[in-house]
Amino acid sequence: MKTFVRFFVLVALATAGFAVHAQAYPNKPIRIIVPFPAGGDLEPVARGLADHFQSAWGQPGVVDFKPGANAIVGTEFVAKAPPDGYTLLICSVGAMTINPHLYATLPYTVEKDIIPVSLVATTPMVLITGPKLPVKTFAEFLAAVKAQPGKVSFASAGVGNVTHLVAELFIRQAGVTMVHVPYKGAQAVIADLLGGHIEMYFNPLPSARGYLKANAGKVTPLALTSIARSPILPEVPTLDELGLKGFDVNSWFGLCAPGGTPKDVIAKLSAEVQRAAAGPALRERLQAYGMNVRANTPEQFAAEIRNESAQWAKIIKDKGIRTE
Question: Is the pLDDT of residue 20 over 50?
Answer without folding.
Answer: no
